[in-house]
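Quick illustration, no need to memorize.
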Amino acid sequence: MIDVATPLLAIDVGRGTQDILVYDPDRPVENSMKLVLPSPTVVVAERIRRARRRMRPIFLEGSLMGGGANVAAVREHLAAGLPVYATEEAAGTIHDDLERVRAMGVRVVSRAPEDAEQIRTTDYMQAELRTALSLFEVDYPRHLAVAVQDHGFSPHRSNRIRRFELLHERLDAGDWQLYSLIADPPLPDMTRMQAIRRQAPGALVIDTGPAALIGALCDPWVAHRSETGIILVNAGNGHTLCFTLKGEEICGIFEHHTAALDPERLQHFIWRLADGALTGREIFEDGGHGAAVRKPLVTDAIAVTGPNRRRLLPEAYQAAPFGDMMLSGCFGLLQAWKRFREP
């Protein structure tokens, strides 16, 4: 059950999709307005490629946002011999170290050259979403909650290491409680989250991985088994995050890249985590982010959510809170809003 009193727009921004819930406390959650749309990085990448097909220079302006498809499109544009211009903030999307961005061939400038096609960078596509909802006579909520994956500002060392350091620090500071992974407002180093807060100063902005797993706990099967201990996995398009959880205590955690995993490899890491034997070095050297263990957790209950759940863990319980697995992160955002904004 979700007992949130505030109408809320919840947006879970992933690598492939942005999953959107228009929450109205006066209607059942299952009957809420929902959209699953291309992720902002996919939208920006397509706009860059469209400009490349027209052989046009581009100027990136707006906010720092998540990378991925958009950065790949920038590289393709440069490889085609076409100029790429960007403001300092937009250039931070490509890399935290602007000298590395310049070395790629991107020209960091303050204003658009006259011949360049302007492309806005943002994780929060407010104008587009307002238009889409207005076409169906849906009121745009005043309150906003957004989930993004933020690696933290790390211009000169691996952002995989920096991201997991920040997660570990939050766990230690919060006695390894589930909601300790959420900082409201976000930590200063979380520049992607901070960019959204500049666009929407009152927004709740949290990490996608914890949001999805908190949302999965809205599934009654998952909630019941978490009381005695459960292994909970979010198999996202970009990243896979795994907790061993008892009540609200996290016993262990690891994060890896989904594309690098298959069912056998993921299960190997899961059981080492449950045994308390998995190390951060083991995950990092395998190409992932890291791992941290507080204590072993003996359980045979495994639940998985996320769009890659059936590929990676077909035999596990397929968590679908309120009947909609793609909205797990949005339901987690609602739970976080209740915890932090409606105490």
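The two ends are 16 Å apart (CA to CA).
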